[in-house]
Amino acid sequence: MTIMKPRILILGPPKKAAYFAPYLEAVRGVGGDPELAWPGAGFRGEEKALRAFLGKYRGVLFPGGADVEPRRYGEEAYENPGPTDPELDEGQFAVMKLVLSGALPALAICRGLQVLGVAAGGALYQDIPSRRPSDVRHSVPHPKDFPAHAVRLREGSVLARLSGALEFEVNSRHHQAVREGGAADRIGPLEIVARAADGLIEGLEHPAHPFLVAVQWHPENLAAGHAPSKGLFEGFVAACRE
């Protein structure tokens, strides 16, 4: 029997195809049919047109990338700002709004987790070293699969089920992170399901969504030899297939 390969949108501008290649490889490696594509300005500003753009896909992956503009969560930029990309923000936040409504299964990675957190009503630590210093190494850019620190997952979460473990080492290369809100275990409708040893948020998921999982690390660089990362991609593609 032939197993369907669901077409999955990697949501990023094709002009940066080399950067997004590991995401496509990870999805393809577990039976998905990834496509790097980006909605033009006309699609981003009109919900009907954007839904038409998304209509040929069975799921969407929000990849890593530039910092989210602070105005998205009502703040001004302060020290140590990273590069931002207003067009990337515009497109990804427009699609995330539809994803939160249940439009498509979605996996969000690194910046993608931060976009999800802000879209759900949260805010970010703009610079971890200056705003939330700790001994945990959250920014180890090279090699990309270096085990920078451990994460601890909440028992019973979708992320824990797919990972097949409650604690494991991950890579890490980010200087921003979703900030804790008023509730100890939630960001709006999202549940906090993974943290680093210093308490920094490393995983979010939507309990009422068909599949909406986000991680702060980079499983696309680990999937080939890291069972939790491979399991995450397998679960995402399975949800898209369903």
Folded structure, characterized:
It is a single chain. The strands form two sheets. Strands 1, 2, 3, 4, 6, 7, 9, 10, 11 and 12 form a ten-stranded mixed sheet that branches. A two-stranded antiparallel ribbon has the order 5-8. The two termini are 16 Å apart. The protein is an alpha/beta fold. Helix 4 crosses helix 5 (111-119). It is 31% helix and 20% strand. The protein has helices spanning 17-29, 41-44, 47-54, 86-100, 111-119, 128-131, 158-163, 227-241; strands at 7-11, 33-37, 59-62, 106-109, 124-125, 149-153, 167-170, 177-178, 186-187, 190-196, 201-205, 212-215. Helix 1 links the parallel strand 1 and strand 2 (33-37). It has a single domain, classed as Class I glutamine amidotransferase (GATase) domain (Rossmann fold, 3-Layer(aba) Sandwich). It is globular, with a radius of gyration of 17 Å. The chain contains eight helices and twelve strands.
